[in-house]
Specification:
The complex is a heterodimer of chains A (319) and B (338). With 319 residues, chain A is mostly helical. Chain A has a single domain, classed as MetI-like (MetI-like fold, Orthogonal Bundle). Chain A is built from 13 helices and two strands. Chain A has a two-stranded antiparallel ribbon with strand order 1-2. In chain A, α4 runs parallel beside α7, α4 crosses α12 and α12 packs antiparallel against α13. The N terminus and C terminus of chain A are likely disordered. Chain B has 338 residues and is mainly alpha-helical. Chain B folds into two domains: 86 residues, no CATH class; 226 residues, MetI-like (MetI-like fold). Chain B has a two-stranded antiparallel ribbon. In chain B, β1 and β2 form a beta hairpin. The C terminus of chain B is likely disordered. Classes of the chains: A mainly alpha (319), B mainly alpha (338). At the A-B interface, α5, α6, α8, α11 and α13 of A face α1, α6, α7, α8 and α11 of B.
Amino acid sequence: MTVTRPSERGGAVWVPVGPRDAAPPERERRRPAYGPWRALWRRYRRDQGAVVGLAVLATIAAIIIAAPLLAAYPPDVPLDIIALKSQPPSWLHPLGTDPVSRDVLSRVLYGGRVSLAIAVLAALTAATVGTLYGAIAGYAGGAVDAIMMRVTDACLSIPRVLLLLTVAALWGRLSIGGLVLVLGFTGWFGVSRIVRGEVLALRDREWAIAARALGAGATRTLLRHILPNVASPIIVAIALGIGNVILLEAGLSFFGVGVQPPQASWGTIMQDGADQVRALWWLTVFPGLAIVTTVMAVHAVADGLRRAADPRSGYGARP
Amino acid sequence: MRSFVVRRLVQAVTVAAAVTTLTFVLIHLAPGDPLAGTMDDPRIAPSVRAHWRQVYGLDRPLPVQYVRFLTGVARGDLGFSVSYNEPVIAVIRRAVPNTLMLAGTALVLSFAAGILIAVIQVRREGTLTDRALGAISLGLYSLPDFWLAQVALLAFSYWLPIFPAGGTIDPVIHPYLGPAAAALDRVRHLVLPAVTLAALTAAWIARFQRAALLDVAADDYLRTARAKGLSEWTILVRHALRNALLPVITLFGLSLSAFVSGAVFVEKVFGWPGIGSVAVDAVGARDYPVIIACTIIGSILVAAGSLIADLLYMLADPRLRRAEGDADGGATSAVAGA
């Protein structure tokens, strides 16, 4: 039989508690032979698409990290503005050259560093802000939660691209760091909703109450006890965020408000060929393929993680 | 039910106020003030600069400026555009119908296509068709919107010149066309941008709808339908889809913001004169009032759209009409975590 008693949170929540004199379980509690991360990996491994995605992503990361070894030419230096201007792909320049005679392969390799670094850092920023905001809202509950979530609702209905254009216009040229911050601070609304929902569901579980009863403060309960249980949706959100930011950064850079030339990113390379897409197709096609391959791999990994962490769930939204 | 309507209305107004406040904060966080770009020129005398700052109220204390900004937006006074040389509201008023037409068409197309793809996938679950459609969805979902727009433009207007390359109408012959031909001209211009925008979101909807359909796959009423001897297609479309549609329909309000966002770059590539094109051009021209107005109006359109969508579900689904206990502000926000 189960008795209930009001929790110490003002009696609003009723927590089922076992009978005081319940006999200890007959068997020793069986511990799994591996921890939560191994368990996640075991479930992840079953999904063929996700494993392929992870392999592709690892390869791309390795290629991009090794860019200085692989690139035959400097990415930002015109080679020969007269003889090597706008050359189609050839043996010497496998992806051609751009209108100022820079080697496109080298630019794609180095540009990948910029695009991916921005994406990873912005997604981490967004996840951090969103997690903190959502955790505070969910843990505080009541009016604080209601107000904080109405703010998120309002922010969610701002089209992100327009907001980014506003910031880009007001600040003029954004540095890479500025771009990371702007992309990060416009991408946390979704994460905060997810985290808030989870925290709200977990904050009055027995172990959370036990932690508080043992004298843990709100911060400690949140950081040490509750948030580790929200880790997997946050990781999935980071993965989806990386994919979204790669696409967004490319779009912004393509229209001249993201990464600034001569710095190479996948978006700026396409911008160099934007005026003459038909003639200089290699400037559009190759960075585009790099983006599509990377983002597809990221999404496959995100899907796999989501299925491994929670087999019954839907899919995330585009920005 | 009335309390729900009131709450959603309040929420929509909150969105408008919040966006306006946010843009005001951004304007004042940015280095310089709105006149810095055009006026801070050593050739302009300081007294002239001070005069114009006074005209625009930029010498007043911030709270005063904030109230002026807020009341201005509420009255539809969004400032004066330097690059268009006319009030911003006139520019926006011209652009909004175009964006609504493009995003609206894309919205209908993408939901129709997304649901259709999901139904086919589920009917052929586990087969090559299912996997191929899933892979295509994942691919589309991973495409940069402006890139797809460019490729579509290249493929269907240069290599295979089936569709016109940009704009909403043919500027030369449109005035001389009869009503039917004029309508056809508009449709021909709409096809490429609308299909491009729809393709990106259709993939997302298809993935969502497929998951929703598989969720109800084991339900009892489907077994009953099967026991009655109905065909698999009838069961899928008339029984399973009807029940699996609700979670997807709630995406409707949520996807509006994605549609307006996506429309920005697609409009620009196709030269479609909506608020996206206007916003991108305004960034190039450093025309702050225009881009700020685009953000405010874009957000208000999204908020209004999701309000209408929420009210419509409530009429459509008796369960929502009764579900007043949900303190979370409506069907749209129930899945907003996605």
